[in-house]
Design a protein that fits this description.
Elements lengths: L2 E4 L10 H6 L6 E3 L5 E5 L2 E8 L2 E6 L6 H7 L6 H11 L1 H9 L11 H9 L6 H15 L2 E4 L2 E4 L4 H13 L7 H13 L15 H9 L6 H11 L10 H10 L14 H15 L3 H15 L6
Antiparallel strand pairs: 1-5, 2-3, 3-4, 4-5, 6-7
Helix pairs in contact: 3-4, 5-6, 5-10, 7-8, 9-10, 11-13
The chain binds a DNA duplex (13 and 12 nucleotides) through helix 6, helix 10, helix 11 and helix 12.
Length: 303
DNA sequence: CGCCAGGGTAGAC
DNA sequence: GTCTACCATGGC
C-alpha cells in the first residue's frame, strides 16, 4: 500500500526530495521507477516520491514509517529559523543557502551503518563507497523485496561479529577496511564506543569525538562525519579536501593552509574551532552547503 | 600505464 | 608534536 505523509513545506527553503537524495550523505539511495526513489533505511526497503508537500512511499513490510521519515528529512525541524540564522552569520553561506535551499543534513537512523560507511570513505569516491556498503549488505544482510526491487538490509554489528574477519576479508574492501569495521563493532560490544543517540543528552561533541577517534581507522574527519550524520551533533564540522579548498579560497582568517593534503591533528582542531566560532551550533549544516557547492564546481557528482 | 577518489596510521625525526 | 610513505581497490 502507498502511504502519504503530509508535511509543512517551507516557503523560503522548500524541500525537494530528488535533489536532497542526489546530494544525500548516506549511500543507499538510487533511482527506481520514473520519479520514484529506492532506498534502505534501518532495515526498511522504501520506495518514495514527492508530490508538492506530500511524500508518497511504500515499504516492503507495509509499515508506517512517518515518524522515521519526518526525522530523517528533518521535516519537523525549524529549517527557516536555522537557515536564516546561518545566513545572518555569514554572507557567503547566505548565498549558498539561497542557491541550495532544498539541501538538508539527513538525520540517519542507523548510526552503525553510518559509522561503517564513513570508515569506508577514506581515499575513495562516492560511487565506490556506495558499492562497498551495498556489497556488505548483499553478503551479510537480510533480503528485502518490494515490487520486483531486491535490496538488502545493512547487517547489524552483532551480525558482523558473528560473520568474523575471515569472511569479511574475502570482500576485498581494500585498505584494511574489514579489520577497521570489525574493530569498531568490538568496541561497541565492549562499551568503549557508544553510538546510541538516546544516551547522549546534549553538547557531547568532544566526548563523542574522543570515543570515535580512539577507534582504529577513525580519524578526525571520519569522526566528524559520524557525529554530524549519524549522531545528530550539528556542530560537528568535517574537514575534507573539498571543504579545505573552499575554506582556503573564501575565508582569509581561517587557519586552513593553502595546499596541504594531510592536516595535523592540531591544525584540524584549530579549523573546527574557527568554524564553530563563525557558524555556531549548526556549523555542520554550513559545512554541507560549502561541501555541495565545492563538489558541484569540481563536477565530481557521479550520481 | 598512471592518476585519482569526502584519510588514517605507523614509524621516523 | 609534526612530517611521510604507504596503504588496496576499481574507474577512467
Amino acid at each position: 500500500m502507498t502511504r502519504k505523509l503530509y508535511f509543512n513545506q517551507s516557503n523560503k527553503y522548500p524541500f525537494d526530495l530528488g535533489k536532497v537524495l542526489y546530494a544525500a550523505q548516506d549511500f543507499r539511495w538510487c533511482k527506481w521507477d520514473n520519479e520514484w526513489h529506492s532506498g534502505v533505511l534501518a532495515g526498511n526497503l522504501i520506495h518514495i516520491r514527492q508530490v508538492d508537500s506530500v511524500l508518497e512511499y511504500k515499504s516492503h513490510s507495509g509499515a508506517d514509517l512517518d515518524v522515521m521519515l519526518r526525522s530523517y528529512f528533518r521535516l519537523c525541524d525549524p529549517i527557516d529559523d536555522i537557515y536564516d540564522q546561518l545566513a545572518s552569520r555569514d554572507s557567503y553561506i547566505a548565498q549558498l543557502v539561497k542557491k541550495y535551499h532544498w539541501l538538508r543534513v539527513l538525520r540517519q537512523p542507523d548510526s552503525w551503518e553510518c559509522t561503517v560507511s564513513y570508515i569506508c570513505s577514506a581515499t575513495n569516491n562516492v560511487d565506490r563507497i556506495s558499492g562497498i556498503v551495498e556489497k556488505i549488505a548483499e553478503n551479510f544482510g537480510g533480503r528485502l523485496d518490494l515490487d520486483g526491487d531486491v535490496r538488502f538490509a545493512f547487517p547489524t554489528r552483532r551480525k558482523v561479529l558473528r560473520v568474523g574477519v575471515g569472511q569479511f576479508r574475502e570482500l576485498s574492501l581494500g585498505l584494511d577496511r574489514h579489520c577497521k569495521i570489525i574493530t569498531a563493532a568490538e568496541r561497541i560490544r565492549d562499551g568503549q564506543l557508544n553510538l546510541s543517540r538516546a544516551a547522549r543528552p546534549e553538547a557531547l561533541y568532544h566526548k563523542a569525538k574522543g570515543q570515535l577517534t580512539a577507534c582504529y581507522g577513525i580519524g578526525n574527519k571520519v569522526a566528524d562525519c559520524i557525529a554530524l550524520f549519524g549522531l545528530d551533533i550539528t556542530e560537528a564540522f568535517p574537514v575534507d579536501v573539498h571543504i579545505g579548498r573552499a575554506l582556503a579560497k573564501r575565508y582569509g582568517d581561517c587557519p586552513m593552509p593553502e595546499n596541504s593534503s594531510t592536516l595535523s591533528n592540531r591544525k584540524y582542531c584549530e579549523i573546527v574551532n574557527w568554524a564553530q566560532d563563525r557558524f555556531g551550533k549548526y556549523a555542520g549544516f554550513a559545512n554541507q552547503f560549502l561541501f555541495h557547492e565545492e563538489r558541484e564546481n569540481s563536477q565530481l557528482m557521479g550520481r
